[in-house]
Amino acid sequence: MTYQNFQRARSAAAKAQRHEDLIQAATGVLEQDGVDGLTLQAIASRAGVVKSNIYRYFETREAILVELLLRDFVEVIEELEKQVTKEMTPAAMAQLLADLFASRKRLCELMSQIAPTLEKNVSIECVRHFKRALLAEAERASVVLQRGLPWLRGEEAMAVFLSIHVFVAGLWPITNPSPILVTLYNEQEFAPFRQEFAPALFGLITAHLLGLESVKELSA
């Protein structure tokens, strides 16, 4: 690919647009080749820029993935705010949350890679920014959870949402096994290992919420 039409972004607006162009290019690569196929060279080729130019906006490929994860996470919170308008049962809340995450494959895959991969190849400044943004969104989510489950205290609602993060990160790789494991699990002997993400996530969230509710009732 040639880059004869490439021009360095100089104004704030141009830099913001270049940043967004790179994010959109990364999105396209992810949709086509998955996380494993996301390289800075692939992003540069799709965006029509030289690879070295990406470093003006992102320090590593993982920094790009972290931003995409955060954007997807914000979408979940925004949808949650729209749908939770009144008090709900724990099971209804669990179903809504499970559906919201299950419908976002990219988010779930990236959440499963935060601790083992994504946060290990970025600077402390990048991680600090990500964690602050994540906490801010979790606080938004806790307000919504309290709207639907008014018996939850603020710190409990925050803990619930952070626990859901752990559930998603743990369940996603287990419920999306490699082709070799898919073949193995099709054998009757190993069938118990087959799990579906949405029902499993629903079960974990439901059990967690019902447990919290029961503790409150016992201590009342």
Automatic annotation (TrEMBL):
Keywords: DNA-binding. Residues 39-58 bind DNA. Residues 16-76 form the HTH tetR-type domain. GO terms for molecular function: DNA-binding transcription factor activity; transcription cis-regulatory region binding. This is HTH-type transcriptional regulator BetI.
